[in-house]
Specification:
By secondary structure, the protein is mainly α. It contains three helices and no strands. It starts with 8 loop residues before the first helix and ends in a 5-residue tail after the last helix.
Length: about 55
């Protein structure tokens, strides 16, 4: 049986095709990392909010 692991975010962001697509769309690795951190922050905040349903 072949047990393949999922690539890490860092590995994905280092892929040449991903780098080319991000450049085409005007994004950098830092943009993506900031976006992910913001989503994580917002999710943590939403989970603690008494208004979260």
């Amino acid at each position: 049986m072949n047990h393949r692991r999922e690539p890490t975010l860092s590995e994905l962001l280092d892929e040449p095709i991903v780098i080319a697509m991000m450049a085409r769309d005007g994004f950098t690795r830092e943009h993506i990392l900031r976006l992910i951190e913001r989503v994580r922050h917002d999710r943590r905040h939403a989970e603690r909010s008494p208004l979260a349903a």
